[in-house]
Amino acid sequence: MSLAASIISSTLNAGTPLLIAAVGILIHEKSGVLNLGIEGIMLLGAVAGFGTTLATGSFALGFLAGMGAGLLCGLLFAFFTIGMHANQYAAGLALALFGAGLSAFVGQPMQGAALPSRAELGIPGLESIPFVGEAFFSLHPMVYVALLLMAGVWYFLFKSRAGLVLRAVGEAPSSAYALGYPVRLIRFGAVLFGAVMSGLAGAYLSLVYTPLWVEGMVAGRGWIALALVTFATWRPARVVVGAYLFGGVTMLQFALQGMGVSVPPQFMSMTPYLATILVLVLISRNPMWIRLNVPASLGKPFAPHG
């Protein structure tokens, strides 16, 4: 029972950074903006969060620093793609490369450094419940925040007027503009929100999931989060399933290694990514689902006329 509870809690922990990043991706893609720079933003959020916590001893400031790094990246991306009408694909790839390089340079002196000890995790009064407490209520608060964020995004997108306007901007920006909605301002806000969430996801990786800084530690999770949202056909519930599927396979990889299963480590390392993509492809095997759910203006710049 204790092993099963440990696997469940580890799965939730491993899936959380994907879930946080996907929350932001859902918002900016629903507005019609495609940002392929999530990997770079997560790396900069990770190094900013780790460096700030290392310098101040405050994990709260570390998370804020990760969000701040994401905000700066979002401003840069929005300036070029929304303000200057640059190609979103090229700008996103440039941001991914920029983030990888800058994070490696800034983080070089911090490799091998140890963070200060942090307070006990879990929800007081619930974490002591046999099995259930260990499995679900002994985790970092950001695990629960991520679930609340995804629930909030679902409500915002499908149950609120503001969410309806955001989706209208992503589907038909010219029509939304003709009705008087500030299309570029709405997209600007969506991009900033997505970038802040990506920075927060990166900070979670370096402060909670693996509390250290290693060059390239995001290890493709930014790309997985992008694929996750697409193959989940922009549906929050499917995104949650995909994120925790990735976390579960990641923990299975470690469990098999601990049991001494003789499988090449390179194969074990690629298993979580392969399994996640395979299952998501099977879920979305009907291409009509993606065509019906993809925002019609995704990746297309908008320039108001007149």
TrEMBL record:
One annotated Gene Ontology cellular component of this protein: plasma membrane
Source domain of life: Bacteria
Main location: membrane
Transmembrane residue ranges: 6-27, 34-55, 61-82, 89-107, 135-157, 185-206, 212-232, 239-260, 266-283
Compartments, as annotated in UniProt: Cell membrane
GO molecular function annotation: transmembrane transporter activity
Keyword Transmembrane helix annotated: yes
InterPro entries linked to this entry: ABC_transp_permease
Keyword line: Cell membrane, Membrane, Transmembrane, Transmembrane helix
Coiled-coil residue windows: none
Membrane topology: Multi-pass membrane protein
Protein's name in the database: ABC transporter permease
Organism listed in the record: Sutterella megalosphaeroides
